[in-house]
Amino acid sequence: MSIEVCHINGSKLVQQLKARRDVTVSKVLEMTASEIPKVAQLHAKRPKEIPAELDFVTVRMLDMFDNGRAPLLDSDLEVFRNMGARRCLVDSFSASDVRDAFEVGHLAGLRDVLSVANSENYAEFAKLITYGAQENARILAAAMAGYHDTARVERGETIQARRQLLAEVLRASTESAAMAAAAGILLPEGYLILICRFLQEEGALDRALDASRGVLGSSPGILWSTEARRDEMLVLLPVNGDEDAAEALSAELVIAASRKVRSVRAAQALATTVGSVPETLRELRQIMSVVVAMPDAQARPYKAAELVIELAISRQPALQNRLVDFLGPLERGTDLRLTLDELFFHELDRERTANALNIHRRTLSYRLQKIREFSGLDPSSPHGIQLLRAAMTAANLSSSRVDDSDAPPHHPSLDSRVPPINEPGRSPS
């Protein structure tokens, strides 16, 4: 970075700050890296880059201040426009990361230089602080302009801009509106948030995404992302006074995915404003953990209002433990837990359950009788089946510890759902 020469008045304060700028640069880098993970990652990858940038801005602002508090030149600001563009295009910073880095850096620099303030230089220090705040705002504006212009123009498409917009919306960032403009869309009043998860099936996420692309591309305002670790798809459907239309799209997405994936779990919740998206998403993840745990969840988006009992179970560990205790004795029998899994998955249809287990109807009846004998709950009665369903849900919740950062609870039946194979002595009815 070249620094254009200008007339210097020779301020003792400026010379003192320039002489110790290595300390200032170190303090600023330390604070920004600790507060903003992206900065730490970039510094680890290219350790000379950020210190050089900080040294440039420190020297340049001190020199221009010493030159009668002259504003930074357009050539100076171009450096920061290019920096913003590079953060977007090369380093995959979010717009919030860029803005936060400048604001945290300005605060860290101010805190450090104040350490040399004293009664003799106080008046000049006050002018320096005012000048720094004024020019930092111009520097930040230049960097953000470079960032947004890159997202809009240099990529030649809006895909990355949409990804960045999704990141900003999920953080309720003040950059959401600017990123929406870069993506060529208008922010809606709110979003219907949909989470779809695909359980224990190789390649399920890719197949579901392929089946859903038509719906995902039906509106430029739809934002979505996938997370392979969870086999999960997150979709934000715009709502502008018509929640029913968004819910119809949500249902259509789940139906499309279920055509290619056997086991789909889905939940949805309404964020009435863009700013409420992060909190709504946190609540939705709790709902999703319950949907994944339900042994009879259907391929449709569930809402919190219809999961009152399940959510109550998830929030009361003592109740969970009591329900799980009903299932303990089933370990004494053969495949009794697996049998319950299949029974609930097939909506209590005994013929389909027997076929899925590749056993005779009489064998299924025998197992259900053993379940009643061991657990004390009759799977043939409404009360018994309700308690067994609650117990299965509680068991799945307990195994995942209701922690959405973990893998979904294991469903043994999902490993065995293959077309029935006739074996000697084990033919379907």
Shape: elongated
Strand content: 5-15%
| H and E order | HHHHHHHHHEHEEHEHEHHHHHHH
Count up the helices.
Answer: 19
Low-confidence stretches: 1-8, 402-429
Most strands sheet: 5 strands, mixed
Q: Pairing-aware structural class of the strands and helices? A: alpha+beta
Indicate the radius of gyration in whole angstroms.
30 Å
Per DSSP E runs of 2 or more residues, the count of β-strands stands at 5
What do you see in this structure?
- With 429 residues, the protein is α+β, with helices and mostly antiparallel strands.
- It contains 19 helices and five strands.
- It has helices at 12-19, 21-35, 37-45, 49-66, 74-89, 95-113, 122-154, 159-170, 176-183, 204-216, 243-258, 277-293, 308-314, 317-325, 336-345, 350-357, 361-375, 382-400, 412-416; strands spanning 190-198, 223-227, 232-239, 264-271, 301-302.
- A hairpin with a 4-residue loop joins β2 (223-227) and β3 (232-239).
- α2 runs antiparallel to α6 and α14 (317-325) crosses α18.
